[in-house]
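seq as requested:
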Amino acid sequence: MKGFFGKKTEKIFDLHNLELDKLALYVLPRFVFEIIRKYFRLDVEGLENVPSRGRAIVLPNHSGWTGLDAVMIGNEIFKQKHRVPRVLAHKAWFLGDIKMVSVKMGMIEASTENALRYLKKNNVVVLFPEGEYGNFKPSSERYHLQEFKRGFVRMALATGAPIIPTLVIGAEESNINLASLKFAKYLKGQIIPIPLNVLPLPAKWKIKFLPPIRFSEYSPKDAENGELVHNLAAEVQAKMQSALNEELKHRKWVYFPPEETNLRA
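struct tokens:
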């Protein structure tokens, strides 16, 4: 292909040879995701802790009722590691026409069977142990981890996959949730958020991938030990909560840096 001055220009990407899921993660970041990154002034740390090959469980705190944290984590792993992570997502991402986009972006409906299937194929699986209780919790409880579901421990024990605890900071302030409605009678287990804002506020985001946790001293049979699984899940949650508290302690600003605030005054 020649440019305006007759010189051969570089071909940016070959759409015809890209797989569908890579197409969604390769093309969109150049337009949508990069705009979102700049809007949130995203910082990313610790991506060296995500393996370039082999199975792994990326385990983030869930924050912000939109679920945008899942998309941003998946995009960062794809950009830096050139891997399509399989994100276990809420079933709302698979309703109607949005399902086609979700599947192309590597999302799979959250279930133990789906996670194990992809881990056994040496994929990176992104799993939110708080479930919908994490991102649908009221903003008054922001950065207070909800009780972890214990499936991720069983998956790690059964497959030998390392766990990469991951912190997401900023999404709680971008998407304000006033309260959550829990339907116990007609829609058992369903939670619906009551958001304050639809468009996200420009809070500064940080995603930090912590060093991996391995359960190499245990065997796959230990996945059936309920007490052990419960204790290991509680230990991981405690480590993540401590790391979150430490990060928040050193956070200097949420929406605008002091110098920028002074200019606006």
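The chain has a mean pLDDT of 83.
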